[in-house]
Amino acid sequence: MTIATRSDAIVIGAGIVGAACARALAREGLRVLVLDAGFAAGGTTAAGMGHLVAMDDSAEQLALTAHSLSLWQSLRHSLPASVEYDACGTIWVAEDGEQLEAVAEKRRVYEEHAIASEVLDARRLYALEPNLRSGLAGGLLVPADSVIYPPRAALALLADAQTHGAVLREQCRVDDIVDHGVRIGGETLHANVIVNAAGAESGRLTPELPIVPRKGHLAITDRHPGFCRHQLVELGYLASAHVLSTESVAFNVQPRATGQVLIGSSRELVGWDAATNRGVLGQMLERAVEFMPMLARMSIVRTWTGFRAATPDKLPLIGRWLPIQGLYVATGHEGLGITTSLGTASLLADLVLGRTPVLDAAAYSPMRVLAAPAAAR
Ligand SMILES: Cc1cc2nc3c(=O)[nH]c(=O)nc-3n(C[C@H](O)[C@H](O)[C@H](O)COP(=O)(O)OP(=O)(O)OC[C@H]3O[C@@H](n4cnc5c(N)ncnc54)[C@H](O)[C@@H]3O)c2cc1C
């Protein structure tokens, strides 16, 4: 295979993160080549839920998600209808009085980051979402959170990159990254900037990166328009996402533009075993039915799995990887890569161009993994 064009930047991976990075670099006038081992948007991006969410597991995570949400909001009117951008908001559901107290604290944290939210008592919760089971305490509505259809969003970002001169090569697996270059078969392609955006597989190309594939299941129902109107997530979701060593499930449902209900979510560390785990899938569906009993009467038309790129400290790896000349990484986004793709790309472009980013780049720098004790990697 011969890829003759000379590029300023080579982006490895055409998932939503690679697509966003390619777009940001191409818009800065760099000649960008995007390489994907499979097809654009065919990796984890095609398996994700598409919830654009302000997530507050840490100050750094909230800063990146909040910045990314503002970028999505600026972009939303230029996205094609097929991206199915739906500003439905999130409701974090509180099961009891104790969780409702946690809601007040969550609201305070959001307020510090200028993210609007509204505490819901039980009456207001049921007015907004009548299909939730009775006996819940209330919740927190975050109106600016949204939902998109991730593969279409990635393709829209790539199309924008292509209109700014980027070139996409699919079915083109990078074997190795070298100083200012990538090896594919016997050929070496050179560029000043190389971006490893290979998602859960990024650690195969840069083995020092502590990326672990974290499997998740999703299930989708047949069509019931209006059954739920917001992304609904149990307050315990963050705790289930935070613990890296165990398998966990949490109630997390999403209204799709088709009228289907997308049901998540699960987390497992089982290497690259993509097979459906009937036990975990069953627990996930049971949890969903506990919150929305009517789901038990719906048909599940499809289930699938995908791999999140997990890091030990729950933050992505974005920035220069100094051991290899010209190499940047943009990976480790776990369950937030759809949301944070745009923030990642803006941070990466600032670093490539030597500008001071809006966010504190040190918090996301991949170089932190070399400073961490080996046991933590
Ligand atoms: C069940 C589930 C639910 C999720 N829900 C959400 C959600 O609601 N909101 C949210 O923000 N995020 C969510 N996520 C996370 C989100 O889907 C990911 O963080 C995001 O898709 C990662 O995008 P990416 O571009 O880094 O990786 P990918 O989409 O996997 O793209 C990486 C690409 O790199 C290519 N590649 C790999 N190796 C090579 C190589 N050697 N050479 C060339 N190409 C290569 C692959 O073919 C692939 O196309 C969810 C994930 C899962 C699994």
Word description of this protein:
With 377 residues, the protein is α/β, with parallel strands linked by helices. The protein has two domains: 165 residues, FAD/NAD(P)-binding domain (3-Layer(bba) Sandwich); 155 residues, 2-Layer Sandwich (D-Amino Acid Oxidase, Chain A, domain 2), CATH 3.30.9. The chain contains ten helices and 19 strands. It has an eight-stranded mixed β-sheet, with helices on both faces. A six-stranded mixed β-sheet has the order 8-2-1-12-19-18, with helices on one face. Strand 18 and strand 19 form a beta hairpin. Helix 1 runs parallel beside helix 5, helix 1 packs parallel to helix 9 and helix 2 crosses helix 9. The radius of gyration is 20 Å and the shape is globular. The chain starts with 8 loop residues before the first strand and ends in a 6-residue tail after the last helix. The model has no long low-confidence stretch (mean pLDDT 95). Flavin-adenine dinucleotide binds next to helix 1, strand 13, strand 16, strand 17 and helix 9.
Structural class: alpha/beta
Overall domain count: 2
Cα distance, first to last residue?
Answer: 37 Å
- The percent range for helix content is 25-40%
Give the low-confidence spans: none
Strand order of the largest sheet: 5-6-4-14-15-16-13-17
- How many individual β-strands? 19
Which small-molecule species are bound to the chains here? flavin-adenine dinucleotide
Total number of helices: 10
Can you identify the CATH class of the largest domain? Answer: Alpha Beta
The fraction of residues assigned to DSSP E strands is 25-35%
Give the full name of the CATH homologous superfamily of the largest domain.
FAD/NAD(P)-binding domain
The CATH topology label of the largest domain is FAD/NAD(P)-binding domain
